[in-house]
Amino acid sequence: MERVEEDDPKQNNVKTRPKGGLVTMPFIFSNEICEKLAVVGFNTNMISYLTTQLHMPLTKAANTLTNFGGTASLTPLLGAFISDSYAGRFWTITVASIIYQIGMTCLTLSAILPQLRPPPCKGEQVCQQATAGQLAILYGSLLLGALGSGGIRPCVVAFGADQFDESNPKEATKTWKYFNWYYFVMGVSILVAVTVLVYIQDNIGWGWGLGVPTIAMFLSIITFIIGYPLYRHMDPAGSPFTRLLQVSVSAFKKRKLAMVSDPNLLYRNDELDASISVGGKLVHTPDMTFLDKAAIVTEEDIVKPGQAPNLWRLNTIHRVEELKAVIRMGPIWAAGILLITAYAQQNTFSLQQAKTMNRHLTKSFEIPAGSMTVFTMVSMLSTIALYDRVLVRIARRYTGLDRGISFLHRMGIGFMISVLATLVAGFTEVKRKEAALAHGLQDKAHAIIPISVFWLVPQYSLHGIAEAFMSIGHLEFFYDQAPESMRSTATALFWTAISVGNYMSTLLVSLVHKFSARADGSNWLPDNNLNEGKLEYFYWLITALQVVNLIYYICCAKLYTYKPIQIHGKDSESEGDAGGELASKV
Q1: Which parts pass through the membrane (predicted)?
Q2: Is residue 409 situated within a structural domain?
Q3: Residue 70's domain spans which residues?
Q4: Strand (E) or helix (H) holding 274
Q5: Structural domains of the chain, count
Q6: Which of 267, 285, 475, 543 lies at a 20 to 30 A Cα distance from 528?
Q7: Is 464 contained in some domain?
């Protein structure tokens, strides 16, 4: 980011309010709420829309949603690149929201206008499938939604955090609170989507079911744009990927050079780095010294005064440290994947468990199996509120940290609770199958076993608590530790970890299903009758993998080096001015 656009009080006689701060949160959160309402409201029940309204075969519908999900999980990298390199976060969010709005509008119109979908099925006749034109509208709408979501997801959270000045001690403490409340708001919107919107879609109609989030999204765009004068705007500072590649190429070209004895002799240029070090410059760290060679000044690098160096041969130590910071984040990023894999089972096998259990609250009211995730969301929201209001204050007395505990500790707690969640899930499955056997229902795949579905509440709730600790810590970690000019890109990595975790779940299920199959037809994960499987073994396999992952994470956290930053005007070091000039050479 090049600069922060703020009013200069010296240029105005009238005292002006600094830009950013808490006053901007309603405008930013409204955009996130509506995006989540739309995404979750569509995805939760979209399989029903495709099969019942467009008469799409189940396998084709499933593949359509899978392809859409895969595309939507990759587009945040594109959106982050555009934001950090060219457009800035505000305009990326605005344009992406409009693109998303167009996609939602097209999908809503296809649900309202009869000519945009096949006619209803009549009796026992074979249902007429959607025409090529009708499918084109569907695929176009989904593609626009994926592109729009890719611009919103990585930028909204970073743009919100940008509203707090980290160099101001009074505002710095609000940044970690922002991440808690960002996730809380996101959780509330998801909770509304899986309850209210799904109810509207199933009982009132798809026109209203898709129309409500479409209208909400339109209003959120207007609200977000109205807040423009209040925001702190960070200008883009060029492609971060180009800078990382330049450092890598420079280090490779100079790989045979001997390392300088004094790090102060490495190249520094505050003017060159001004646009990418608004919040402070990164200082040298002693690890990954092979990359430091990119900052060694040779005779070939000497240029005329005022002329920029060839960045494919020479880079500043700040840019070298940017690459080091990205590399350091990699192992911590990878550790979060398996938690998502464990979490993903709620929408598959846990859902199938719920379908076989007694879900009646009263004689006339039965909890939908798909609504069991409400317990996950409620526990997550409760934990976030409790953490922010109580746990932080208690932890602060012992750690002295404003945020209570570090984000690495917070993630570690989440990992441990996730291990407990899948462990409990295995024992719950044993209890469910014992009830099926006791009532002679083991061979009846679709029979309702007389055991309360509330036996599943502990595993759903533990997953929600784990997410409140781990996912928010993960998100905070990416924002805090990423180079400041790459924060949208770093936030996109958070969403990418979620995507990889879901793909990992698919791979793990496929491998277990293949290698647990026996000649007699038995399988840990049977296709038809869950009562004859060994789902508890699958849960405990995930538990074992998570234990290994936890040990891996602890090692990574112990070895992790926090991003070293020197705030402008504070703690100035003697950096050996001669060593920072291009006139110096090896």
Answers
A1: 90-116, 136-160, 181-200, 206-231, 325-345, 365-387, 407-427, 447-472, 493-517, 537-560
A2: no
A3: 17-120+129-236
A4: none
A5: 1
A6: 543
A7: no
